[in-house]
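Entry: Bifunctional non-homologous end joining protein LigD
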Amino acid sequence: MESITLYFREGPSDKVYQASIAPKDDGYHVHFAYGRRGATLNTGSKTQTPVAYSIAKDIYDKLIREKMAKGYKPGAEGVVTPPPESPNKHTSIHCQLLNPLHEQQLDQMLLNPDYWMQEKLDGRRLLIKKDGDQITGINRLGFPTAIPETIAHDAAQYPRDFLLDGEAVGDTFHAFDLLTIGSEDMRPLGFAVRYLRMRDMLNAFDHPHIRLVEVIFPCETADRLQEFKREGKEGVVFKHKDAPYSPGRPNSGGSQLKYKFHETASFIVTKVNGKRSVSLILFDGEKVRQAGNVTIPPNHDVPEPGTVVECRYLYAFKESGSIYQPVYLGARPDIRAAECTTSQLKYKAETDT
């Protein structure tokens, strides 16, 4: 496979672009991947069907010329991230989604002996399925998604089939739950059973790019939570030790809950303003609410109208619905527009300020 990794760095902007030619059937595909350095890359293909090598080479060379004309420069070969085989075919696998834990519930949760805690990673939700020799990445919507070759290579080393749930951060997969192993469906079993089986599984083979997300037991949760806060981590997740893995999100509450140290929400971009700013909206039942504007930093591409994006914010104003001190985190192609609702918001009256 012919490939190149290009880098662009200017001020706070630090981007990566990969291009590759890969054989497929009787022809070749031209794949690309892009994003911030150190992040899990977005992927795509310039060829919908296999083409002759000469055509693929022309497309590949044109891509490289265009990027280098914009200031990208060749560098050390990065981890190749090929796109999935059938990105639009649903896998029939649905991941578990958690409701937030409210601030007033936190102390009670920390003292509950039945709940185990895990760090909430600031990455891309990813499930890894091994079926024979095939390794498939699955996003939070249940569709096939790109998976870095380093992660796929590690996953292939385990002799049995499996389905793991976790977060991808760069070229490392952080596994926090085990759904199946061999022919055994682990989802009806309690989290404690699933976790210990996953630990034993990962102890059985070498996998430098797959890491186990440790569980923190009740006697240590309060101290470790404060430690995570001091280190600027994303948050934590509390899971009842006997809770099964339940696909989808409960209407409210649940036996597994997330607690974020920073407020984040998903929004829909409605228009691009001047000076790298975009306007945001949310759904409120059948109504559309304005949620304010956010500035797009130089290391991100400006999203087009209709794109779902994620922002961090201090709080929202109840009267206007706008978010205060928003920080743009990036596009979220794995989140549906229908999920961008005002129910995500934490309003000023609910904060400690």
